[in-house]
Every structure is written in structure tokens, then in C-alpha cells.
Design goal:
Elements: H1 2-13, H2 24-29, H3 36-43, H4 45-53, E1 64-69, E2 72-77, E3 80-81, H5 83-87, H6 89-95, E4 99-104, E5 110-114, H7 115-131, E6 140-143, H8 149-160, E7 164-166, H9 173-183, E8 187-191, E9 194-196, E10 199-201, H10 203-211, E11 219-223, E12 237-239, H11 240-245, E13 256-257, E14 261-267, E15 275-280, H12 282-295, E16 304-307, H13 314-326, E17 330-334, H14 345-353, E18 357-360, H15 362-371, H16 374-377, E19 386-390, H17 396-406, E20 413-416, E21 449-453, E22 465-472, E23 480-481, H18 485-492, E24 505-509, E25 515-520, E26 524-527, E27 530-533, H19 534-542, E28 547-557, E29 561-570, H20 578-591, E30 600-603, H21 617-624, H22 639-654
Parallel strand pairs: 4-17, 6-7, 6-8, 7-14, 8-11, 11-12, 16-17, 16-18, 18-19, 19-20, 29-30
Antiparallel strand pairs: 1-2, 3-13, 4-5, 9-10, 14-15, 15-23, 21-22, 22-24, 24-25, 26-27, 28-29
Helix pairs in contact: 3-4, 7-8, 9-10, 12-13, 15-17, 21-22
This protein binds adenosine-5'-monophosphate-propyl ester.
Adenosine-5'-monophosphate-propyl ester is lined by residues 267, 314-315, 390-393, 415-420, 441, 503-505, 517, 519-520, 526, 530-531.
Length: 658
Amino acid sequence: MVEEKVEHTIEALLQERRTFEPPGPFASQANAGDPSIYERANQDPDAWWASQAEELDWFHKWDTVFEGGFPHHKWFVGGKLNASYNCLDRHLASAGDRVAYHWIGEPGEERTITYKALYEDVCRLANVLTELGVARGDRVGIYLPMIPELPVAMLACARIGAPHSVVFGGFSADSLRDRMNDGGAKVLITADGGYRRGDIVPLKQNSDKAIAESPSIERVVVVKRTGEDVSMQEGRDLWYHDLIADASPERDAESMDSEDILYLLYTSGTTGKPKGIVHTTGGYMTGVSSTHRLIFDIKPDRDVYWCAADIGWVTGHSYIVYGPLANGCTSILYEGAPDWPDKDRWWSIVEEYGVSILYTAPTAIRAHMKWGTEYPAKHDLSSLRLLGTVGEPINPEAWVWYQEFIGGGKTPVVDTWWQTETGAIMINPLPGITTLKPGSATKPFPGVFADVVDDKGKPVGKGGGGYLVLTRPTPPMFRTIWGDEQRYLDTYFSRFGRDTYFPGDGAKLDEDGDFWLLGRVDDVMNIAGHRISTYEVESALVDHKAVAESAVVGRQDPKEGERIVAFVTPKAGREGDETLLQELRAHVAEVIGKIARPHAIIFTDDLPKTRSGKIMRRLLRDVAEGRELGDVTTLLNAPILDEIRGKSDALKAAGEEE
Ligand code: PRX
């Protein structure tokens, strides 16, 4: 099954032969301009990572750079530091007045937050959290829109050594509840609501629903964002503005061990509940600050950098909060949607603030392509000098469009491969050194050891395709899954043995040894740059009273990215009609969040199964993608496939839901 998918994608990619050398003026000023950086890191990776860790401020220097190996590794052992100190305090003397964030609210408000102001807000909230009984090691849930209070909350937690667990504001009450319960959060920080395309997201209402079944949560801190009327439970719920009004703007940062937990962040797995990815302090901060500085070529006193992700995902944790702030750089923080009030919102922000570096996802680039070049053309985008992408394989057409219509045909485009688990970018070009190829993430970052192997774990060599693996730990990688060490080992270190990390992606090496990422090979879909497991969507569907059984697959489209297709068998007496279809889409949104709503639902009386009763998702994927069917010899109920295929084609012809 995996083989088929990998080969299929390789064929499509082989046609791409364009290359782009680093532009001369860019190369001559680049932070990483010397190609020997790779050799240096290869020969002595520990010394290389130590040189990157030295860019941070340590209260106490480490005794050993690296201990252990996969699956258990430690970095900067014995070192003491604080992430919030590195993001704030150390910049105050030289750059306290520098802007940390230009915040832009969706309805149009603007706030300029300097490093000094951010520092004070973080200290205030850190003091408040202590008063609320949050101690070192306690977990704090954060469920906020993209407002300045979100990074403030994260840094306040980091300051007092309380791991945060941020839940994306688009997730439902049930998703929030599950994450709070798994992490055992003591306090939740949320808001009365958030804005999205002019609508209000009822965050407090969702929180109330979640907390009703999250017994560990003692207090709820509520930020006033929309001014909506919300219910406040006496003794449990407190207004953020009341709490910080009297709090001191000074607070020492806790001295944390390099291996102390900085945060948990949940991500989808193939089976069961989401996994709490555990990131620690010293290695993570070293990884995010060095990759941010070298890959985005950050000049802190000049650049206006914009990572247009949501902080609720790892991209925002690493490249809106910890990386950029550790580097003392000025960022844009935009609350809303790219097409609100109109489709040129992003480009008007780039023009107004003189954004020089933009980092976004292929799914956003494709949306802009669809909307048309007239929107970027309305604005002066000449301040842009570097573009980046992350989240899914970028099709060469989108890469070239991005460079031409957003980058004015002159900017390098860095395609960066990484995951929630890796914490920081692992495979990427260095824009002053690397020859770019649209669709290729090119080479492992210095100090990262990656390869492509076959089924048996044997390197495929140049020109071959197979499974991506990392063969040596790097500092920013996660250390375990919260509360489930066995799952950590089983998920990542069983496919090719305990000493090899398997991220779950297919990849190909070209003749130059450059990496081309080919998407997931497990039952995890990549929807708009975010991982959603087929299992979770299936569970949400079966949770509906009218559903007997369901199977969910991701349909790959080289231009559109991956889409969720659900095959659903209704219970006897219930018709698979338009009403049920709408009910199911709404139900999935309710149980998981809108992002997981199936793009298409195909009702069927039965699902293709093996003789042992396992649903054959790979055949359903073939159906969804309109491919020749793979091996059907083990299939129990073959005729059902023709029926499903007929329905699937009819559905496509009728046009699916956007
Ligand atoms: O399949 C890969 C894809 O996104 C997955 C990681 O998802 P998540 O943990 O949600 O983090 C997304 C942002 C870091 C990977 O296993 N992916 C990420 N970046 C790329 C990519 N696939 C191809 N090219 C990329 N640049």
C-alpha cells in the first residue's frame, strides 16, 4: 500500500527540473553564507549544536552537550536557563524599545508592543498565575484567539516553569476537554470570544462546556476580546484585566533545567486520542532560535518578519513566539482570515508594515492563487526579500507562483520540512547557499541527519524513493508523549528499530541528494497543513446516532492538497441523504472542529473489508482518487467497490462542498 503511494507521487515529481541559484546580493549578506557550515556540523554535530546554544543566555552553562541516542536523548545536560528570559529580559538593555509585535485585529485595530511592554505584561501575568496557585511543573491550558495575550500567556507560563498546553482556537469544546484532561491542566486561560471572518468564535462558551468535564481545572482566566456577554462562574472564572491591573510588572524568571518541560502540544496520531508532544527547554530553544536565524536570515534591527500561521499549531509556537522573540526580531501578529474584509488583506499588511520575510503554508498560497493575481498586484510588495513555506508538500506550480507574484520574481523561497515532534525545521534550504528547486525542501539543516530508506530500513541512495528517517537526535526534538511512553516508542521507534526515528512521511532523494517530501504514509491526513487522523474523524462520525460504520481517507490532489473523504454506512431506517450529510458535517465540526469536516461524504450500504473484517482503506483511497484499484484478492465483499465507485464519480460530477 505504501509502495503504491510513494511510486505514484514520485512519477509526478520527476518532471520538475527548474533550479534557482541564490541571488548574488542576497548571498553576500546572508547569515549563513559559507557552505562549509554543513561539513563542520557533519564532522562534529555536538560542537555545532553547542555553538548554536551559546547564542542563548544560560544562567548556568551545561556540563555535557548530548547524552544518549534515539529514543532517549538529553541536550545541554546540567544547563540552566529560562525561555521567557531568553525571549525578553536579555533584549531589554539594547532593544527594549524595539517592536516585538505589530498586532492587527481582524476588525482593524492595531497595537504596537515593544519588548519592554511585552516583558512587563508577561511578568504581570506570571505573578497572577503564581497567586492563583500555579507552581513550577503545573500545566496551564491556553485557548485564545491570535491576540497579544496569547504569547503573553505562553511566556508567563515559561517564566514560572509551568508547561503550557495551547489548544488551537478552532478546536471544539470536546477537543479542548480531551486535551485538558490528558494534560491535567490546573488553570485555563481563554477569552470571551475571537473574531473569524466577521463572526465571533464562542471560546468562553466552549470552555464552559469543556470544563464541565475537566475536573483538574480550578480557575479560568478570561481575556475580554469581543465584549460579548459571557457567563462567569463565581469563584472559578476571573477577568484577565482585573487580575493584571494590580500585578507587579517585575518578576524573576525561574531557573529551569535544560531538560525541564517547556510545553505540551497535542497532535493527531493514527489511532486513539491525540498525542501530547513533550518539548523541553534548552534543546528546543537552541533549535528554534538557530533555525529561525539562519533559515530566515533574520536581521533583528531591520526585518519585519511575518509567520502567518496560528500560534495554536507548532509553527506558531516555534516561529511566531519562541524563535523570533529569542532572536529579538519584530513580528507581525494578525488575528484574522486572509480574505477578510477582502482578499488583499495580507498584501495590504505587507505594504503597510514593510514586511520583509513571509512564512506561510502551501494551502494558503493555493488559496491566493485561486483568488487571482489582481489582489497582490494592488499593493507594493517590494519590501519582501525572503519567502517560506511549511506544512505539506508544495507543488512546483504554487512555489513558482509564490516567488513570482508575491516575491516579485527575486526572493528565495525556502520550503521547510518539520513536524510538531521535531519542534524546529529539519530539512530546508539555507537561502544564501542552497540552489533551490521548486517542490524540494533540499537538505537537512546542519546538525540534522536524515535519510531515505526502503522497507527493510536500507538507504535507497540518490535517485531512490522510500521512507524518510532521522538517524540521530537533534536538540529541539520532543522527548516523549505525555503520559504514554509506550506509545512514544511504538509510534516512532518500532518501524525501523529503536535507534531510528520514523516521522511517517515518504520521501525521494534526487541525483544531487536533495530531499523531496511525498506526504504521509500512515493513516494521518494532512489537511490544510495540519495533521488530522482518519481514526478521529471516523470516531466522530460513528459518534452520530444515525451512523453504523464509517471509513475516512485523504484524497490527494497535486494542486489542491489533501481533502477528507468519508464513506458512511447509515443505520437501518436512516437515509443517506442531504439532510444527514449536513448533520454529519456539523457533527464532526462539533466534536473535533471545522478543520476536520469531511469535504465529501459517500453513503454506502457496506464497506470493503478483508476476510478478517478490517476495512480496506487503501482501496477506498484508490476510489477517492479515481485510480486503478490495487490488490483486491483479500477482499471479502468485492461488489460493494463498484457500487461505491459509481457513487463517488457521481458525487464528483455534482461538485462537492467547498
Ligand atoms: O507530512 C509532513 C507535513 O506535515 C507533517 C507534520 O505536521 P505537523 O506536526 O502538524 O506540523 C506542521 C508544521 C510543521 C509532516 O509529517 N509537512 C510539514 N512540512 C512539510 C511537510 N510535507 C512536505 N513538505 C514540507 N515542507
